[in-house]
Design a protein that fits this description.
- With 649 residues, the protein is α/β, with parallel strands linked by helices.
- The chain is built from 22 helices and 25 strands.
- Helix 3 (54-70) runs parallel beside helix 11 (260-274), helix 3 (54-70) runs parallel beside helix 12 and helix 20 (469-487) runs parallel beside helix 21.
- It is globular, with a radius of gyration of 25 Å.
- The chain binds alpha-D-glucopyranose.
């Protein structure tokens, strides 16, 4: 819509911002700003219409966009143009990611240059570098408590080192993903320090209250995120005699986005990050960014408005950067981060497929895929043009976030079922060979999540300790099957570093005073590059897993139909141990069938034919075998924890 007064206001700001500048903002930026102006104004008004500084702040937001784009290096502007021409570049089957802690992976940023050949060898071309910005030792939450959004923590190197790495990665055709810790800052951040010193301007950057009246009202409805290590949602600040909202740890202060100045400061920070060359910005904890008393303060409508506003701002000033919303919430709530109504596919471009991740672990523990199948109608609602991060493990715990209804649909009792899964992965259940641990047990509700490395959860740690060759083989098969299932689903596969070489739990965290309260550190390994040579030594578990993952990535890269084009449908395999999906593009089909059970699984050919015409033969891309398609009632057989990637040729 054209609003004359709005466009005059923007023209005026543009004129002021560029007077005396040698370079006028490029024409495509002005086009985007003009085209987005009405939406920007509408969203800003929805959030801040009642704020006394509304008009002033709206102009400041536009100034921030102009300045952010003016500071964007020309190489990145060219990259923006290429991505815009390509359209939805992140849906491609050619992208495979890995998430890693730079210090634990190789020491520091400059050490990463030497490791680019390792990623190439494996087939990884997108790196999610875990938080690198300044974060106080001992109160860092793995870097998610940021004290300076513009200074790389000296432990990793400098901002220049990060820029250097980004340039090398770009030269190698790689993509970079990093976090913006949008919901909170460290209590050592300059804003928090000023608030502690009594400055009312900065106290308004946080949710601060002189007594318990409002905190108690909030607490009545807010769940606890870390009930064991950080109970409650508020912390007493001795220095200024006030309570501050701290949803996560006591040292992570929640930012008050009801104050438009906070949004503008953080927008400026986001554009600063964009201008470092980040391709995918992971917005940490977006479910929490808007708070209202009387609610759980999660997934509120205005949290979505805020994200939509941020999305439009980024689309204007740094259009090549995609936004990933790290919303690890109930399945229906996750879907809403892709946008709804006229904002469908206009909010987060990418979200974590946390529901499916947890369902894979569920199916592995029970050998039963019915809950996974029950969840798909919901997950299939994802709009075209958006995508998932698909993963088996990440740096966080595994939350059993699928709904009770999905569990009931599969015929189980939700409480008893979740109890079983937790017992299974913490190794308590008799017969379980998993070696994980419960994380954040809520003593009131008995809710808990699960920590543990992929290999240890799949039984490799206990199998190696017992020297049991059959158990080792079983664990290795489980690992490969789990990776394969995730890699071909559609979406960006994100490996977690160490899993590609079957790293076991690392128990050093227990001795570290900055980490001993958080068992997620058990699955965040230190990579020993001397022992990594084993990946080339046939006979070792490392060799087996590394080669398998490498081969899966290679297969994926050659199959365009694995890109995420709304081209997945789920099979009804008539066998509760098997999950099967069909990926298709034009006349080409890929049938991915995965046996989550400990025994061989029989599938009738009818289960395949039910999905449409089959040729006479299908080729398994994994084994290279050609299978003659049999009559309806004859079987295709999958080995225990085996899988097949069958294509028509
Ligand atoms: C996200 C991160 C997690 C962190 C939390 C608080 O969920 O993934 O590691 O503890 O945010 O920042």
């Amino acid at each position: 819509m054209y609003r004359h007064s709005l466009h005059q206001q923007i023209r005026q700001i543009l004129g002021e911002s560029t007077s005396g500048a040698t370079e006028y903002p490029d024409a495509s930026f002005i086009t985007r700003l003009t085209a987005n102006a009405t939406t920007l104004q509408g969203l800003f008004h929805e959030l801040y219409g009642a704020h006394p500084d509304h008009d002033l702040c709206f102009s400041d937001m536009i100034r921030t966009l102009i300045a952010g784009h003016a500071a964007r290096p020309s190489a990145l502007r060219d990259r923006d143009d290429r991505k815009l021409d390509e359209g939805h570049w992140f849906l491609s089957n050619k992208i495979t990611g890995m998430s890693l802690y730079v210090d634990r992976f190789c020491g520091e940023l400059n050490g990463m240059h030497d490791k680019l050949s390792y990623f190439k060898e494996l087939g990884v071309n997108l790196l999610h570098l875990m938080p690198l910005f300044e974060s106080p030792e001992g109160e860092s939450d793995g870097g998610y408590a940021v004290s300076d959004f513009r200074r790389v923590d000296p432990r990793f190197g400098s901002l220049e080192d990060l820029r250097g790495l980004q340039a090398s990665m770009q030269g190698e055709g790689m993509y970079l993903m990093m976090d913006i810790v949008f919901n909170h800052t460290s209590h050592h951040h300059d804003w928090a320090r000023r608030a502690k010193a009594g400055d009312p301007v900065y106290q308004d950057f946080f949710y601060m209250f002189p007594d318990r009246t409002i905190p108690d009202a909030y607490d009545a409805d807010m769940p606890e995120i870390f009930p064991e290590s950080a109970p409650g949602n508020f912390t007493w600040v001795e220095e200024c005699g006030k309570w501050v909202m701290t949803v996560f740890h006591k040292y992570q202060w929640d930012l008050n986005y009801r104050n438009p100045r906070v949004f503008i400061e953080m927008l400026d920070t986001v554009l600063f990050h964009a201008n470092l060359g980040i391709d995918i910005l992971r917005i940490d904890a977006p479910a929490f960014i808007w708070k209202e008393p009387g609610t759980t303060c999660q997934n509120l409508p205005k949290a979505h408005t805020l994200l939509r506003l941020l999305r439009r701002c980024v689309a204007t000033a740094a259009p090549g950067m995609a936004l990933l919303g790290e919303a690890i919430v109930a399945p229906a709530d996750i879907m809403r981060y892709f946008g709804t109504g006229i904002f469908t596919a206009q909010e987060c471009d990418i979200a974590y497929n946390a529901t499916h991740m947890a369902l894979q672990w569920d199916a592995l523990a029970t050998g039963d895929t019915r809950i996974m199948l029950a969840a798909q109608p919901e997950l299939q609602q994802k709009p075209f043009g958006t995508t998932w991060i698909n993963y088996v493990r990440c740096h966080d715990d595994i939350g059993l976030g699928y709904t009770d209804e999905m569990i009931r649909q599969a015929g189980f009792d939700p409480y008893a079922h979740r109890r079983y899964i937790k017992d299974y992965y913490s190794g308590v259940h008799p017969g379980s060979d998993a070696r994980g641990a419960l994380f954040s047990v809520n003593p009131k509700t008995q809710d808990a999540r699960i920590s543990g490395s992929m290999a240890s959860l799949c039984g490799l740690e206990s199998a190696l300790a017992q020297g049991d060759a059959a158990a080792i083989e079983r664990a290795l098969n489980r690992i490969v099957m789990m990776q394969a299932h995730s890699l071909f689903l559609g979406g960006i596969p994100m490996l977690f570093y160490g899993d590609e070489v079957a790293s076991l739990n690392d128990y050093a965290w227990m001795q570290d005073p900055g980490k001993h309260y958080d068992n997620r550190w058990m699955h965040r390994p230190h990579i020993n590059w001397k022992s990594m040579a084993e990946r080339h030594r046939p006979g070792s578990s490392m060799h087996y897993i590394f080669n398998a993952v490498q081969k899966l990535i290679r297969i994926r890269r050659d199959q365009e139909l694995v890109g995420d084009y709304g081209n997945i449908s789920w099979m009804h395999p008539h066998n509760i141990h098997v999950a099967g999906y069909v990926r298709s593009l034009d006349a080409r089909r890929l049938y991915g069938v995965f046996n989550f059970g400990k025994d061989p699984a029989w599938l009738t050919w009818y289960a395949f034919k039910q999905q449409g015409h089959l040729p006479e033969t299908l080729k398994d891309l994994w084994t290279g075998d050609i299978h003659r398609v049999g009559p309806d009632h004859e079987h295709f057989i999958l080995p225990p924890y085996g899988f097949a990637l069958l294509v028509n040729e």
